[in-house]
């Protein structure tokens, strides 16, 4: 959530001393260095001149939402996103009600943390279901219920299309085009999309959809990870360090910028190898890779 | 390759005694039961009333192409496809020449085996490359070189889009729409597409592209596998037995039929669990699953 009295850009990127060193738009997603505690993370960001962080609900809840909010505020860090709401595909009324309640709590946490962007991972097929269009329609309905609640609290919902390999069990929204089809049912200030290179890099239609999203003011978050093979079992934790894979990250950054985006560039890596290393070292490496492969 | 003097349908599906038992369009891809030798496979098909097989080049070459051709011919089996040509993304001239030569050999083998359909798996990014559009363009160029050679031998090229999780290392053609964009540069009798449920089930644009492919006479093969999670490491051998996963296989069969397709329905499963079992038992199970979940 941006505050017009703060010296921040339109997407929460603060003007910091790091700007001159190329990190002015860089944000580290907490999952990239999940081995760090929240105080370790904020201290590491301060040491390295990293101006933004993307946070996750579970570690924030464990630390305490208000305490986490104070910690990042005192460190002068922008919270670029909160991950994540969503999982809106349940068909059964009670489960659906619980999902909506949980999303309202996520909105409240986003507002408390001072971020204007809640990332939504939409959810996969309910157990026993083979109805993908039905799941997608329930996602749109859920977003419609949540958008006004979020708007009142200064939070935008950002629908993240996940790679089609997650369509069954994690996210029935598989392309930027699908995410925009849902987002565009609502005002851009309420609902937009996440462009994450890991999920959209393969899609020949994604460049046109980036332009479409930018023209509509709907790029609410831009995230980076590289694509490396072979994929690990379960395929969740195989995201590559920037530069280790096949994605032309600079071309994607230029494409997103060219669509009118000027906000944070958040690096979100789920990678067992990175998690086994020293977190401060991984953060420093990630920042260097960002400068080398993205700027 | 169909012969107008044989009692076969337009796509090589023979009229067999099995027709009345629901298997008239059923074809078993050799990889589904790769634990069976070629003679074991043909004998099992005869015992179970399976009228068609999809063959793979490597086991056919090991057995001998002419001997394999005689074996399936004597068993009265239709060879519905030969897998596979393709891998046309090399940029380096010598590697490119070798790939084209290998594809010409694949066409010759298809003709010798009596199938009219050579499946193309297009190939991924060359080592060190991040240029996905370039790879796709080289695929189209390669298809253009091969199509006349194949036509002269009565063989159609069938471009198979593979799931986007294979875009980097196996197949830069990730959607039915992309496959059609390439195929439609050539006559439908020369170049078409493979519709494989495993690769396209997640794609909200695929139904429209099935209709487009059918209207153009370009559905050259229809293959089935189910989508099960979690995916195994490497993601290659995680295709589910029909009915074990989340794909509405009957809806896809009806969709493809509705687009005007009346040819073989080939079941191609890469699945370590199935490979560890008795091959005859797996073939019988697959035929039963086909009747239950697809017809």
From TrEMBL, chains A, B:
MF terms in GO: isomerase activity
Keywords: Isomerase
Keyword Isomerase carried by entry: yes
Gene3D superfamilies: Divalent-metal-dependent TIM barrel enzymes (3.20.20.150)
Domain of life the protein comes from: Bacteria
InterPro entries from the UniProt entry: IolE/XylAMocC-like (IPR050312), Xyl_isomerase-like_sf (IPR036237), Xyl_isomerase-like_TIM-brl (IPR013022)
Low complexity bias spans: 7-21
Ranges for region Disordered: 1-21
Matches recorded under Pfam families: AP_endonuc_2 (PF01261)
Domain Xylose isomerase-like TIM barrel: 43-284
PANTHER family: HYDROXYPYRUVATE ISOMERASE, XYLOSE ISOMERASE
Protein name: Sugar phosphate isomerase/epimerase
Species of origin: Streptomyces wuyuanensis
Classification lineage: Bacteria, Bacillati, Actinomycetota, Actinomycetes, Kitasatosporales
């Amino acid at each position: 959530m941006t505050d017009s009295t703060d010296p921040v850009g339109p997407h929460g990127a603060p003007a910091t001393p790091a700007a001159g060193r190329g990190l002015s738009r860089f944000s580290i997603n907490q999952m990239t260095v999940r081995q760090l505690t929240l105080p370790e993370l904020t201290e590491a960001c301060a040491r390295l001149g990293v101006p933004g962080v993307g946070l996750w609900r579970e570690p924030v809840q464990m630390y305490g939402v208000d305490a986490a909010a104070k910690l990042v505020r005192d460190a002068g860090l922008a919270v670029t996103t909160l991950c994540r709401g969503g999982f809106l595909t349940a068909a059964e009324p009670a489960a659906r009600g619980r999902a909506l309640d949980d999303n309202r709590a996520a909105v409240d946490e986003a507002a408390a943390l001072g971020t204007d962007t809640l990332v939504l991972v939409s959810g996969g097929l309910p157990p026993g279901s083979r109805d993908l269009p039905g799941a997608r329609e329930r996602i749109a309905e859920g977003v419609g219920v949540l958008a006004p609640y979020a708007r009142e609290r200064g939070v935008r919902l950002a629908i993240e299309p996940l790679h089609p390999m997650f369509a069954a069990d994690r996210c029935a929204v598989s392309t930027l085009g699908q995410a925009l089809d849902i987002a565009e049912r609502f005002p851009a200030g309420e609902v937009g999309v996440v462009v994450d290179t890991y999920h959209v890099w393969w899609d020949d239609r994604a460049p046109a959809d980036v332009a479409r999203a930018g023209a509509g003011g709907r790029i609410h978050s831009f995230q980076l990870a590289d694509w490396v093979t072979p994929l690990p079992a379960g395929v969740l934790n195989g995201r590559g360090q920037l530069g280790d894979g096949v994605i032309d990250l600079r071309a994607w950054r230029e494409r997103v910028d060219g669509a009118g985006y000027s906000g944070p560039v958040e690096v979100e890596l789920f990678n067992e190898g990175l998690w086994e290393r020293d977190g401060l070292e991984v953060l420093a490496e990630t920042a260097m890779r960002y400068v080398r492969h993205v700027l």
